[in-house]
Amino acid sequence: MSHILTDLSDGILTLSLNRPEKLNAITSAMYLDLVAGLRSASADIGIRVVVLRAEGANFTAGNDINDFMTAANLDMDAPGFQFIRAIHEFEKPLIAVVQGRAVGIGTTALLHCDLVFAHPSASFSMPFVTLGLVPEAGSSFLFADLVGHQKAAEVFFSGESFDAHAAMKMGLVSSIGENADEQATAFAAKIALQPPTAIVNTKALLKSRSHDAVSAVIQAEAQLFSRALQSDEARDAFMRFLSRKG
């Protein structure tokens, strides 16, 4: 059974992470389902906008660490890297709704979204260094571009989390509200009524300044990330993390 729920209504495709018992930690199979959903939306002229959300109390705890530690394929064709490329290249509007924890890819993926609606409970973190890794999904470029070098260094080097209000001040979140899901759906409905070609072209223009640079950074990050993932430093960090969870 897929842990990604899909719903298509009035030109809006909703992709929902549905593994709440594991804090919606993302497995390889879930990444591939997300990629399939984005590719389907890209190819279907009837789909005007995609909403990415999650069931339960949390958006996602990030990558499933046990899945990561047993991964056989760590190159650019690995499911996680396929998802990163798909979300970066997705040409239609992409909206996210975040509640509870948004860890790792749960935060970096938001940098590729056009609008992010957050519940007051939302908490964001990118603890890559803490796990012996490096930032991914182009975040070393996009987050630094958003908040400046010093703030990005503070967040990445410490691995500490920040709340929805801090995220909104940074520009990572566009709106905070108890009814974030309803707000996202309402705005998606507005987009769905707009001329679709004009929307796609406008998004392309908004991304044109940095698109190629981000693509290059994604490639560089992936190489360093894969190398780090196989290091003793990362293995030790993962074991410490798992022991704390236990």
Secondary-structure map:
Layout: E1 4-9, E2 12-17, H1 28-43, E3 49-54, H2 65-69, H3 79-89, E4 94-98, E5 101-103, H4 105-108, E6 115-118, E7 123-125, H5 139-147, H6 149-158, E8 162-163, H7 164-170, E9 175-176, H8 180-192, H9 196-208, H10 211-229, H11 232-245
Parallel strand pairs: 2-3, 3-4, 4-6, 5-7, 6-9
Antiparallel strand pairs: 1-2, 7-8
Helix pairs in contact: 1-3, 3-10, 5-6, 5-10
Description:
- The model has no long low-confidence stretch (mean pLDDT 94).
- This protein has helices at residues 28-43, 65-69, 79-89, 105-108, 139-147, 149-158, 164-170, 180-192, 196-208, 211-229, 232-245; strands at residues 4-9, 12-17, 49-54, 94-98, 101-103, 115-118, 123-125, 162-163, 175-176.
- Helix 1 runs parallel beside helix 3 (79-89), helix 3 runs antiparallel to helix 10 (211-229) and helix 5 packs across helix 6 (149-158).
- It is an alpha/beta fold.
- The chain has a single domain (4-180), classed as 2-enoyl-CoA Hydratase, Chain A, domain 1, CATH 3.90.226.10.
- It is globular, with a radius of gyration of 17 Å.
Short précis:
With 246 residues, the protein is α/β, with parallel strands linked by helices.
